[in-house]
Amino acid sequence: MLRFILQKILLLIPTFIGITLAAFMFVRLLPGDPVTILTGERGVDPERRAAMMAQLGLDQPLPLQYLDYVGKLLQGDFGQSLATHRPVTEEFFARLPATLELALFAILIAIALGVPAGILAAVKRGRWPDHLVMGVALTGYSMPIFWWGLLLIMLFSTGLGWTPVSGRLDIINYYFEPVTGFMVIDAWLSGERGAVASALRHLLLPSIVLSTIPMAVIARQTRSAMLEVLGEDYVRTAYAKGLPTWRVILVHALRNALITVVTVIGLQIGVLMAGAVLTETIFAWPGIGKWMIEAIARRDYPAVQGGLLFIAVLVMVVNLIVDLLYGWINPRVRDGR
Amino acid sequence: MKKHLPATLVLGVLCTFTQAHAAKTLVYCSEGSPSGFNPAFYTDGTTFDATGKTIYNQLVQFEPGTTQVEPALAESWEVSDDGLEYTFHLRKGVKFQGNKDFTPTRDFSADDVLFSFNRQLEKDHPYHKVSNGTYEYFEGMSMPDLLKEVVKVDDHTVRLVLNRPEAPMIANLGMDFASIMSSEYADAMMKADTPEKVDTDPVGTGPFQLVAYQKDSMIRYQANPDYWGGKPAIDNLVFAITPDNAVRWQKLQAGECHHMAYPNPADLKTMEENPDINMLSQEGLNIGYLAYNTEKKPFDDVRVRKALTLAINKPAILEAVYQGAGKVARNPIPPTMWSYNDAIEDDPYDPEAARKLLEEAGVKDLKTNIWAMPVQRPYNPNARRMAEMIQADWKAIGVEAEIVTYEWGEYLERSKKGEHETLLMGWTGDNGDPDNFLAVLLGCDAVQAGSNRARWCNKEFDDLIQKAKTITDQAERAKLYEQAQVVFKRETPWATIANSVVFEPERKNVQGYKQSPFGAHYFGNVDLSE
Amino acid sequence: MKLFDTGTLAVTWGYFRESRGGLVGLAFLGLVLFAVVFADVIAPFDPTLQHRDALLLPPVWNEAGRWPYLLGTDAVGRDLLSRLIFGARYSIFIGMVVVSIAVVAGTILGLLAGYFGGWFDTAIMRLMDVILAFPSLLLALGLVAVLGPGLLNAMYAIALVMLPHFVRLTRASVMGEKNRDYVVASRVAGAGNARLMFSTILPNCMAPLIVQATLSFSNAILDAAALGFLGMGAQPPLPEWGAMLAEAREFISRAWWVVTFPGLAILLTVLSINLVGDALRDALDPRMRRS
After folding, report:
1. What is the DSSP string of B89-143?
2. Please, which pLDDT band fits residue B152 given cuts at 50, 70 and 90?
3. CA B11 to chain centre
């Protein structure tokens, strides 16, 4: 097992170097420079522009800039946002909890609905519940979620007034110091009556939107995993022994559901991050997705660079954990490679 | 309804707060996150609303609702006859705010003024490079060239010495980059080895003090009980950061906020019909225009420029692009600005005359481009749509135009170099002085600097505006600017399209809010009725 | 087995026909393709023509709507139905170009990597890992920011983001096939590397590639629409569906039709492609044929 873990981690090193290089090059290739954006319609004379570029370290040759960049990375310095003059690390981690909270809820919703739906479809294979679940799942999978979000807002927020329009809390009536950055937990810690409910109400629509695609994938995967198992001999034997259907299904379903969910989370973390960009844009959710979009628009080099790097590393780490979990659940994977 | 008692708030100052009445919290749906909390570093109005209009004061300020300058931290001032020395008499007994790291021991004094200006002016000032600061606006307004030195005459008198006479100077000092910060706080933080706290944990003399900022989410202030202008009527002020204008409107309707910035033109009608909403409106200090690149053929010919201008159906643009939130612009400066020449007639919409003029100029089958910026600006809510309409109008007189767009930074950069043939652009005024439009956008120097995007250098026009800069008497200056506008209209370097009207919807229980011609949002004299 | 001889095609079609969803998808897709080809004939108006007397008209069945603006008009008076019909062209065009680029480039890289192995294989696969480490939409966004917003650049970016899937798939198939008897036989018979790769091995790896291409087709349409929505893809006045949604966003509380229809068009098109893709996978996958 240890060898397996080490091997997985070693494999990540060249990828990681590639990522730093990619994040670095990417941002250097952007047209227009931050000084131009900073000065807007007014413009700036060449002399002062040169001075500003020098101050930002943008006048050095590219390879030097890269070495400088990596050197600082290794010391945990991800640079300063040009827009706010604050460290990128600070900017990123200030917004990360909002995104994590959203993503976590989305995944919870996706699992809570996707797994049972998938099991149901497998058990009722070929009959109407199967067709219904698969139809809904494929529709969810085909959904342009930015439109889905707009539609839900149009219906539930502006139309029926059931859910708040945007934000994370009713700020007229509640205020407390952030402790964890997770609004639901902070609201609970604050002990103010109704705060948790308010936070949950704000979280509802965005997390539904974000959960749409993972839910569809989970339902489909659970179904096919279940079908495979239901065809196996030992399940037939279990049936033959006269065990009740629900027990057979549940016992084997649980294990399969677990594997499916772990795989899907691993595969979907990237999808989830991409979805977060769109969802956060639509719901004005103060997370890293929205922050990245704005940083790209502002030509905030270090912020885009740092953000991309953090996200890529996040994806890598999650994938690693999933790989390891997978190896742990399913020893064949571990020894087979 | 649950009222929140701010007893849980962190700042020690809050202990003075009594719980005799329910706290009044006003929520303002703002359009974006502030870039930071030192207004001298930045150029965006969003940051100024959150800093210079709440936490800080300046030596002078603009009388609410006007572009007229009135005393603020300076009670009065004199200008020497040669226009080179400005002497300010400072207000006494003004208290700085405090925070968990700092409790002020003295009142506002000349030292604070010196600190605030010298930090930006002197390259070797100990605070000059703190927080990697760039003093964009200070530089942009040419302050380093203008200011020779700042002299402390006594504790309550400061003298600004200039290198050359500059009539708009007083107006400059009312701008947010000239906010006054505490030198005592700066010294204390320098001693504690945390100088950048001056910029992140702001301490000012303004009506509100910062309680908390949650990035991209909200800024929370509380009223400054010792404010020299009297404690504000509201107890808490919250900026709910909501970048999408449709969402802001939805929140306002739902009562999730009381006042909002920059409504979507498409929603104006619904807003006006809503019984819970008060709609404030005022022409903004801005202009949206189409610049002809006068260095390129055939746009060097005034007849061509005139013809293309005559072919543009401005009322249709105002309807479809501004959706009523704009007025047809006649002059390069907005009508709320002094020296606006009301006698000038606008070019009518006349495709027939346009065609004739083109023929006269010998231009046939003209193929050109229209550059349209990719972003929404206060002076132009939708440049794309505007370009599409102009394209259609020009097609009607036989001119084929291709719409070109670049990402905003590239757009600014390329247009500065004059790569365009015709270009949509605009400007929002900084300080209410006509010089800030006419010299910055149309002066000969500005061709070199790039902000004159028509690349139009006219001797007659330039002489008039240069002369106006050196005179302190406003009536005399106004005459020169009026003449300059006549020259502009004759030469048509731009097709002036529109001055946008700034709308601000608020809930009916908001009392006393005054719109600023600068597009700023100020809540110091606002109250909430039940 | 060869995929393209008529016998196999007939068998595949036989299985495909069993899927009702696949048929429905195929039918709708046919409709979309019809719109793509005959847009000029069937669309009532030029999609960029502005009817200045008909701004933001609702669909005809609404009492404020009027003929001939069947689905209403947008903020500058362009006929929504015409824009949707022409929009189909962009979406299908985007899908085809993106998938073609990704399939061709991905297959070649995958073939080379799988066939030659060694450091070349490692380098290619590490590069693909780097691409995969970034969430696809974010990477595409970043690339478009570098290349400049626009439809073509968005397509390149999406194609690049999809590349790794094809590379991995081809490589895996090639590794599985290259030591099989028929390949070894060809080699012994004196076939060169190029011939081995392209005419011997490749045709036998086609089935999974076709399924992946179909699924990528729908993803390409979705991603392009998302980029258009974020202002980084097709630029107005192009009637691309995502860009139309971006323009429509400001009317969310006033004109439901400009928000609803473009999104519905995306959803239905993507859904029908996915239906076809699913049916195709089942038809091509022998394991699924058991039932």
Report:
1. EEPSSPPPP-BTTB---S---HHHHHHHHHHHH-TT-TTTTGGG---HHHHHTTH
2. very high
3. 32
B127 in Cβ contact with B198 (< 8 Å): yes
Q: Is C76 helix (H, G, I), strand (E, B) or coil?
A: coil
Domain-embedded: residue C129: yes
B13-65 pLDDT, tens digit per residue, is: 333 343 445 789 999 999 888 888 999 988 888 899 999 999 999 999 998 88
Asked whether the bond before C44 is cis by omega within 30 degrees of 0, the reply is: no
Alpha carbon distance B149, C227 (integer Å): 52
Please give the full DSSP string across B212-227, using - where no structure is assigned.
Answer: EEETTTEEEEEE-TT-
Instruction: Report ipTM for this prediction.
Output: 0.85
Q: Does residue C2 lie in a domain region? A: no
- Residue C148 distance to chain B (closest CA, Å): 6
B 15-34 residues inside an 8 A Cβ radius of A: 25, 27
Chains in contact with A, counting 3 or more C-beta pairs less than 8 Å apart as contact? B, C
In this structure, are residues A138 and C278 in contact, taking their beta carbons and an 8 Å threshold? Answer: yes
Phi, psi of B236 (to 5 degrees): -125, 145
Of A41, A165, A282, nearest to B425 by CB-CB distance is: A41
Are residues A138 and C278, on separate chains, in Cβ contact within 8 Å? yes
Query: Nearest chain B Cα to C75, which residue?
Result: B320
Looking at domain A88-334, its CATH architecture is Orthogonal Bundle (1.10)
Residues B320, C145: C-beta atoms closer than 8 Å: no
From its phi and psi, is residue A234 left (phi > 0), alpha (psi between -120 and 50) or beta?
Answer: alpha
Q: CB A291 to CB B216 under 8 A? A: yes
pLDDT, tens digit, 9 for 90 and up, residues B38-51: 999 888 888 999 99
Query: A299: part of which helix (H) or strand (E)?
Result: none
- Chosen from B35, B415, B452 to mutate, greatest number of chain A CBs within 10 A: B35
* Domain residue limits at C21: 11-290
Q: Select the residue of A138, A146, A296 nearest C141 (Cβ to Cβ).
A: A296
CA C195 to chain A, closest CA, distance in angstroms equals 31
Give me the number of domains chain C comprises: 1
Burial annotation C135-165 (CB, 10 A radius, 16+ → b, else e): bbbbbbbbbbbbbbbbbebbbbbbbbbbbbb
**Residues 6+ away with beta carbon under 8 Å from B507:** B252, B255, B258, B259, B276, B277, B278
Mean pLDDT, residues B258-273 taken together: 86
C-alpha A152/C-alpha A158 separation (Å) is 9
pLDDT value of residue B356: 94
Question: Nearest C-alpha of chain C: how many angstroms from B252?
Answer: 13
Nearest CB to B388; choose among C76, C249, C250: C76
| Contact: A31, C133; criterion CB under 8 Å | no
Asked, for residue C190, whether it belongs to a domain, the answer is yes
- In Å, what is the CA distance from A169 to each residue of A98, A183, A218? 12, 8, 30
pTM comes to: 0.78
> Rounded CA gap, B257 and B255, in Å?
5
199-218 of C, contacting A, C-beta below 8 A: 218
**Count of A-B CB contacts under 8 Å:** 151
Answer whether C251 sits within 8 Å of B266, measured CB to CB: yes
Query: Cα A326 vs. chain centroid, distance in angstroms?
Result: 20
Does residue B181 sit at the A interface (CB-CB below 8 Å)? no
- Window 196-235 of B, Cβ < 8 Å to C: none
Task: Please tell me whether the peptide bond between B243 and the residue prior to it is cis, using omega within 30 degrees of 0.
Answer: no
Instruction: Check residue B21 and give its pLDDT.
Output: 55
In this complex, the residue of C146, C226, C245 whose CB is nearest that of residue A30 is: C146
